Amino acid sequence: MCGIVGYTGRDQAAPILLDGLSRLEYRGYDSAGLAVRDGSAPAEVVKATGKLFHLADKTDQGRALRGQCGIGHTRWATHGDPTVINAHPHVSGNLAAPGSGAGDSDVVGVHNGIIENFTELKEKLLRHGYVFYSDTDTEVVVKLVDYYYKKYRIGPVDAITRTMVRVRGSYALALMFRDFPGEIFAARKDSPLIIGTAEDASYLASDVPAILKYTRSVYYIDNLQVARVSPGQAVFFDLNGDETAVPLTEVTWDAAAAEKDGFEHFMLKEIHEQPAAVRDTLNSLVKDGRIDLGAAGLAEDTIRSLTGIVIAACGSAWHVGMAAQYVIEDLAGIPVRVELASEFRYRSMPMAAGTLVIVISQSGETADSLAALRVAKERGALTLAVVNVVGSTIAREADLVLYTLAGPEIAVATTKAYSAQLIAMDALAVEMARVRGGITGEQYDHLLAEMAALPDKIRRVLEDKERLQWFSSKIVNAHDIFFIGRGLDYAVSLEGSLKMKEISYIHSEAYAAGELKHGTISLIEQGTLVIGVLTQGKLFEKTVSNMMECKSRGANLMGITVNGNFAVEDSVNFTVYVPRTDEHFVPSLAVVPLQLLGYYTSVSRGLDVDKPRNLAKSVTVE
Ligand code: M6R
Fold first, then answer.
1. How far is ligand 1, taken at its centre, from the CA of residue 314, in Å?
2. Can you tell me the distance from the alpha carbon of 223 to that of 209, in angstroms, rounded to the nearest whole number?
3. Does the CB atom of residue 392 touch ligand 1 within 6 A?
4. Which pTM does this prediction carry?
5. Ligand 1 centre from 3 Cα, in Å?
């Protein structure tokens, strides 16, 4: 989704803003823009469509825009086409021509989110003589702030809070007022925004990686708060305009973790970081050789009283939920429902007493997952967030939080955050099983040892990457790929299929293997690739049979199975083996070759692996 940056300090703002925007590129965007002001001079606004280098070229890498205070934006179009005129920043006056300065505008702003009632607000402003040059909801907000600012002759904070009361929807806003040089005003509701301070400089950003290079002291501005940001300082206000305290947090993420570190793409780097992500996440949940959910606040009594679990999430995080349901039900005997967060929010699902709703999210900002969390709370359920980004909205609003320790994930296609979520859910399942007597002490020790061995085993899977690279060169022109499996293998297939389609743009589907012949098998023709995930002993023969049904209709077969199942080579054309582990945890291993396959196929097709078209890292709109 859109990315926001801001800077006010002693240095030239534009190069810093461009650098920040480049670190937010992974969020997805189709145009970009900057507004920079030099002292009390009006802001200069420059925008460009397409990749960020167009904006950098247009501003001579930022050198052409003089000034020490500015805001920047990468836009992922929602209202209005991805054109220069619709790109942010937007101004309260009339931006006569694309690329011109802010002229006599009093307010200049950038926005992430969606203003739902923008048509109604636009009509009101038209009646008051405002003229609109773009199709965006952002221009409406900027002009509404300007309207209140002038009508009531109030300061920026009051003008912004009045606007916040009037608008419906989600927003992170960064605004500059002509009368307040060197200051940036920010506000948010349901869209991410952080403020970092250093000596003599302050930074705004949608996400931590954009400012890690400059500071680790960060304020997580809360929903419905306003910030007044000056060099080295940020003051916060609530909706009444009263000053309010926001704690300063020290970010522990390693700045190098947000760099490519010699890898060609972030995705490949993050695939290789999975052993560490899994180890760190597991270690954070194990104390003195026992799983300890104390930090998450999940008490044993609560676990005992659970009558059911609902997991709500989107995309890959939903796939983690799909895998976790088998493990929780099998080990702990608690019924689990897995819901797409975007659907859950509009269902009237009765919530029995004792239901735990688990929301899984890397970013902690996904709009649908956040809405699902709120619905669950409204219906009286206890909520647990499994989240990677510390201080994110979902983490703050859930009753309980279990953090994954994947570190910053930059590639749009998730890999290490998925694996960290998976191990966190496995640890949760094992602990629930122990507390509810679903497993013996011996089984508990065995499961714990198997989980602890996973990082090393993932490393071994990564050693097989050249074979996957070779195989990907054979499938580079495929039109359709089908991923099939049963049980946990089906859950892995879902993730493998998403990894393939989202970065290679090859159509792919995941099917529960037994379901294929109920319709989809008619799509199998000569040469169609069918990838079977075959890691679950008692389901192995059945899935192999389903693969053979495809082979007899012309399919080319690839299989992923565990070491020792060598007979599979009699049936399939290409096999990948992963080390043996307790079957509940094989998804942590089986997913890795599928991530690599998607990655290398995308590379072979010459695509933008880390920033696939039309996609955003964090989907903060509905
Ligand atoms: O930040 P979240 O985990 O809530 O994001 C959910 C999905 O948007 C995300 O998992 C998406 O499907 C992945 N980027 C796909 O690789």
1. 6
2. 21
3. no
4. 0.78
5. 17
Which ligand 1 atom sits nearest the alpha carbon of residue 316? 10
Distance, in Å, from the CA atom of 24 to the CA atom of 26, rounded to the nearest integer, reads 5
Q: Is the pLDDT of residue 98 over 70?
A: no
- Catalytic status, residue 2: yes
28 CB within 6 A, ligand 1: no
542 is catalytic: no
Among the ranges given (16-30, 289-303, 452-466, 554-568), the one the predictor scored with the smallest mean pLDDT = 16-30
Residue nearest to atom 15 of ligand 1 (CA): 413
Confidence of residue 600 (pLDDT cuts 50, 70, 90): very high
- Which structural domains are found in the chain, ordered by start? 3-251 (3.60.20.10), 254-452 (3.40.50.10490), 464-605 (3.40.50.10490)
Determine whether the shortest distance from the Cβ of 502 to ligand 1 is under 6 A. Answer: yes
Is residue 483 a contact partner of residue 511, using CB atoms and an 8 Å limit?
A: yes
**Is the beta carbon of 316 within 6 A of some atom in ligand 1?**
yes
Q: What is the pLDDT of residues 12-27, one digit of tens each?
A: 999 999 999 998 887 7
Ligand 1 within 6 A of CB of 230: no
What is the CA(363)–ligand 1 centre distance, in A? Answer: 8
pLDDT tens-digit series, residues 112-130: 988 889 999 999 999 999 9
Q: CA 36, CA 609: separation in Å to the nearest integer?
A: 32
Evaluate whether 403 touches 362 at the Cβ level (below 8 Å). Answer: no
Amino acid type, 521: I
**Residue 4 clears pLDDT 90, i.e. is over it:** yes
* Atom number, ligand 1, closest to the C-alpha of residue 618: 1
Q: pLDDT by residue (tens digit) across 246-265?
A: 999 888 877 666 777 778 89
State the pLDDT at residue 99. 47
| Residues of the chain above pLDDT 90, percent | 77
Q: Is the CB of 618 under 6 A from ligand 1?
A: yes
Average pLDDT, the chain: 92
Rounded distance, CA 455 to CA 318, Å? Answer: 22
Q: Which residue has the higher pLDDT, 295 or 330?
A: 330
Q: What is the DSSP string of 230-280?
A: ETTEEEEE-TTS-EE---EEE--S-GGGGS-TT-SSHHHHHHHTHHHHHHH
Q: Can you tell me which atom of ligand 1 is nearest the CA of 414?
A: 16
Q: What's the 413 CA to ligand 1 centre distance in angstroms?
A: 8
- The pLDDT value recorded for residue 205 is 96
Coil, strand or helix: which one is 301?
A: helix
What would the two tokens of residue 25 be? 């590129």
β pairing state of 217-220 and 233-237: unpaired
The whole-number pLDDT of residue 190 equals: 85
Catalytic residue, chosen from 47, 499, 501, 617, is 617
The catalytic residue among 2, 69, 314, 550 is 2
C-alpha 91/C-alpha 129 separation (Å) is 15
Phi and psi at 74, nearest 5°, equal -110, 130
Nearest CA to ligand 1 atom 12: 315
